[in-house]
Every structure is written in C-alpha cells, then in structure tokens.
C-alpha cells in the first residue's frame, strides 16, 4: 500500500486578478510626453481601449482606491461617461459620500471645469474624461493642480 502526501493546494490568481489585488496608483506608470515639462505627482493619464464593460472593470479599482483616500477632500469626476451612473458607482464599491460628479454648464468646457476644480483645492483628485490633450491643456491642468495641491487624472477611453 502506497501512501502519498499531498501538499495543500494553493489557489493561483490569474494575472488580471493579481493586478487588481495590488494597490493601483502607487505603481501606476506615467508616460512623459517628449519635450514637455511633466509633473507626475500632479498629472496622470490612463488610456483604456476596448468595450466599455471591460474598461469599466479596469477603471473601478482605480476609482475605488481614490474614493477611499485618507484625505478629507473630495474625489471629483468631471464629465464622466453616461455609463458611469450612481448605480455603477455603488456596484463598483466606491465611497459615494466622498465623490462629486460635475458636468460643465452651457458654454463651459470640461477642461476649464477640471482646471477650476483643481485650482480651488477642495478635491484631492480630479478625474476627467477629456480625451487627447495638447501640451497647453496639460500645462493648464498641471498649474491648476499645483495651485490647489491636488492631482489630475485624465481618462482616455477609445
């Protein structure tokens, strides 16, 4: 009779699950546009490509972590896509008591609303969906973030 000793089986996380289990922002890689002054502590961009469902699944842990910051200031979302509803925020586990959702008024651009929210300093992070930004738009957000001691995160989906 043969006896065999079995080592306890360890569950193995997939690469995707392992990535999500790690804190997202501290290790977030920020690309520096060539030839531009870039302040990674003030401005970051995250580009997501593909169908909205998987993109939202990747975005959820980033926003969840930001909504749980120790900073008492707001996490402000500027002009989020219509698919980021209150129900989605709740389902994603975000602390909705610490989130402001802002849409630009008639005649106001989302860029200038984001810059103003950053400059006022009432938000620790201002997340915007501004698409591709030119150098002057980036500089505006960086200067505004510096003035308000905040961080700007631009999400590019497409």
UniProtKB/TrEMBL annotation:
Designated name of the protein: CDP-glycerol--UDP-pyrophosphoryl-N-acetylglucosaminyl-N-acetylmannosamine glycerophosphotransferase
A Pfam family it matches: SulA
Recorded GO MF terms: transferase activity
Keyword ATP-binding in record: no
Keywords for this protein: Transferase
SUPFAM superfamilies noted in UniProt: P-loop containing nucleoside triphosphate hydrolases
Organismal lineage: Bacteria, Pseudomonadati, Pseudomonadota, Gammaproteobacteria, Pseudomonadales
One GO BP annotation of this record: SOS response
